[in-house]
Amino acid sequence: MARSSAARSVRKLAASALKHAFLIVMALVSIYPVLWVVSIAFTPGEALGNPNLFLGLFPIPSSFTLDHFTSILKLQVVVGSNFPVWIRNSTIITVSSVVGALLLTLPAGYAFSRRRFRGQEASMFSFLLPTMFPGVVTIIPQFLLFSTLGLVDTYFAVIIPYMVGSLSLSIFIMKSAFDSIPREIDEAAMIDGAGEFRIFTRMLLPLTLPSIATVALWAFMGSWLDWALAHVMLESNSLWTLPLALYAFLQPNYTYYGSFSALSLVMAIPVFVVFLVFQKYLVTGLTAGSVKG
Fold first, then answer.
1. In this structure, is residue 108 part of a structural domain?
2. Which residues contact residue 199 at a Cβ distance below 8 angstroms, ignoring those fewer than 6 apart?
3. pLDDT (tens digit, 9 = 90+) per residue, 79-104?
4. pTM, two decimal places
């Protein structure tokens, strides 16, 4: 009996060691390209150069500089616009997309959870349809539509698709979150004289904050990091977002690797901060309503 218990402990320990070894390898594989970007961003010159390799594998700058970060703040010759313009455009588009997505998603999730109406199942299925096709497939039809409406090369040409594009998953997340809240709360509030709008805003929304944070994060990632749709819809340099400016450093005859890497890190900072702030809500929001007692 003792020998069998010891054997099980050894197998469990070996399985745990293999699992952690696998996770460490996968983490290194994911982080390795980022290490090169960081090394190039802090290495003088716009070429890839020859950074030092720590342990013959991990790149470190041969000499340290902040020139690339200071240069992107005033660089205009290469791309025809400047850093404040990119930040302004990305901020306006991202904030508008996140707010618009929440204004659409929260009432929709509430309606699908608390109401019963004809065509409800078909409507829910229709929100799944866009997820069955790559997002790139819809860019040309969207361009033709917005071109007909005269909205190409405006903020609306990207804000509206970003808002709608995040609805597929977001509505399901919010519906599950509202489903996990007992209906008895609504009924008790109605007995006390509260109206439906007050119940929705004062009672249900505070209880679904993790899911709301997840929806906002989903919309933020889709609009802050998108390049394909913005590349088609935004023609003027004055409307460029950070991803478009990043791509502009890749010229046909020469690539500005240093500035490219520096701007990549600057773009990653808001994403890192948002994930750091909302990470405790992310898993909770994605799994809300998956288990009911």
1. yes
2. 185, 186, 189, 190
3. 556 788 889 999 999 999 999 999 99
4. 0.82
